[in-house]
């Protein structure tokens, strides 16, 4: 006998688990089916983001930043620490502790909200009257059959493979392996200088590896505002010490004791020899095993589930959210879509504004933005004005020892409405929220300029950039 539900969510990442909680809060009898098992073979909720993505990467970024600070920054404060050492085992265990704490937390929230927590691979089997039938398998054996009025597909994404090389997570690593190395490699190669490459490259560089990134695109961080991207490139190569090679074409990769990566740059053939290689060239949607073909769930040519603006797929009462659908592959975007779908099922009229999805790259300094870049505004023919301000003289940044970076406010030339906020600097992952709020409330740069910002605080640089956009800079 099948278990009956109003809503079954397939996938327990930040899209799926949030959708399940919201659906349950709205009074639906809800189940969440998730297939992920941690390296110990135990089910662990939270998807890519919690288990092998956002959270563990930030844990390691912090550990490596602390180690770097002890070695390079503490002396400036008059603190000397002789022979600072890092125990990679302890660092990795700390990261795992954070994951299990949060994964257990999701399990607790499921209990609290009466979401049925079902472990296994969910597959759409067809319809039984008005209901969808979902089969759940674990290690190939059927463990459950569920029936649901609504299905929310939140199966996430996986690393995009690079033809000609096999990820074994021993020598050649994807994000899972990059987050679980047991020692610092002497020479680390990274294919793809995107978000994962830069974050993971920074971690292992700060711990002592020589890191070389090989990037196919000619432009560094092509999606970012290019003024900020150029400053980031300079800082990450000069200060962090990453060797970033742009515009390369990867050739043969041979894996032995050493890994040899042949590549072409500016017409010349070169070879990079490393001890470990991270492949981070983007991610692909997870739809294998979902039963999409069997039930006629429409996928696009790249394998994403095709959805409309409300995340509704081509089948009745089938929805899809997060990395498995169009749009940025970000945890907060997945969660917002999850909430919106649950509320739409409940008859509400939610809205997800893609123009105000914040982006953050957690390098040091951090890079963050929301809204349009200068390049986009130019391409769209929008007349804009801009104001920039620097962290160099900001009292709080100087006190922190991180007085480096820029904030740029872009506003409509006529109406002064904020169109984009771009920054590189200390803790800009937190500062970008001011831009998100301002844009959601359709604020002008004058609005930010007239709002009191605490002194001394990093947010004063946002204030000053907004004043500069209005030609009223006080410290510029
Ligand atoms: P996922 O988190 O991928 O979850 C999908 C879940 O569904 C997984 O548990 C999967 O095992 C399961 N599943 C798949 N198929 C089935 C099936 N048929 N049945 C049952 N279960 C299934 N984003 C940010 O916003 N900030 C960050 O700092 C950030 N850092 C990242 C760092 C790294 C190294 C990586 C790899 C990603 C990072 N991301 C970050 C991206 C973020 O992880 C994703 O955007 C987010 O996890 C997408 O959420 P999701 O719920 O759509 O899918
Ligand atoms: P990415 O899209 O950010 O970067 C991939 C890079 O690889 C691109 O610059 C691309 O030009 C390059 N590339 C592609 N093919 C190549 C090839 N054959 N040779 C050399 N370079 C090649 O993807 P990444 O870093 O894998 O991360 C996946 C996604 O995960 C990100 O797009 C982002 O959505 C999410 N993420 C978010 C984070 C955050 O929010 N802080 C952190 C890490 C990941």
TrEMBL record:
<keyword id="KW-0560">Oxidoreductase</keyword>
<keyword id="KW-0285">Flavoprotein</keyword>
<feature type="domain" description="Pyridine nucleotide-disulphide oxidoreductase dimerisation">
    <location>
        <begin position="357"/>
        <end position="466"/>
    </location>
</feature>
<keyword id="KW-1015">Disulfide bond</keyword>
<dbReference type="GO" id="GO:0004148">
    <property type="term" value="F:dihydrolipoyl dehydrogenase (NADH) activity"/>
</dbReference>
<comment type="similarity">
    <text>Belongs to the class-I pyridine nucleotide-disulfide oxidoreductase family.</text>
</comment>
<keyword id="KW-0676">Redox-active center</keyword>
<dbReference type="InterPro" id="IPR050151">
    <property type="entry name" value="Class-I_Pyr_Nuc-Dis_Oxidored"/>
</dbReference>
<dbReference type="InterPro" id="IPR006258">
    <property type="entry name" value="Lipoamide_DH"/>
</dbReference>
<dbReference type="InterPro" id="IPR036188">
    <property type="entry name" value="FAD/NAD-bd_sf"/>
</dbReference>
<dbReference type="InterPro" id="IPR012999">
    <property type="entry name" value="Pyr_OxRdtase_I_AS"/>
</dbReference>
<dbReference type="InterPro" id="IPR016156">
    <property type="entry name" value="FAD/NAD-linked_Rdtase_dimer_sf"/>
</dbReference>
<keyword id="KW-0274">FAD</keyword>
<dbReference type="InterPro" id="IPR023753">
    <property type="entry name" value="FAD/NAD-binding_dom"/>
</dbReference>
<keyword id="KW-0963">Cytoplasm</keyword>
<keyword id="KW-0520">NAD</keyword>
<feature type="domain" description="FAD/NAD(P)-binding">
    <location>
        <begin position="5"/>
        <end position="338"/>
    </location>
</feature>
<dbReference type="InterPro" id="IPR004099">
    <property type="entry name" value="Pyr_nucl-diS_OxRdtase_dimer"/>
</dbReference>
<protein>
    <recommendedName>
        <fullName>Dihydrolipoyl dehydrogenase</fullName>
        <ecNumber>1.8.1.4</ecNumber>
    </recommendedName>
</protein>
<dbReference type="Pfam" id="PF07992">
    <property type="entry name" value="Pyr_redox_2"/>
</dbReference>
<dbReference type="Pfam" id="PF02852">
    <property type="entry name" value="Pyr_redox_dim"/>
</dbReference>
<dbReference type="InterPro" id="IPR001100">
    <property type="entry name" value="Pyr_nuc-diS_OxRdtase"/>
</dbReference>
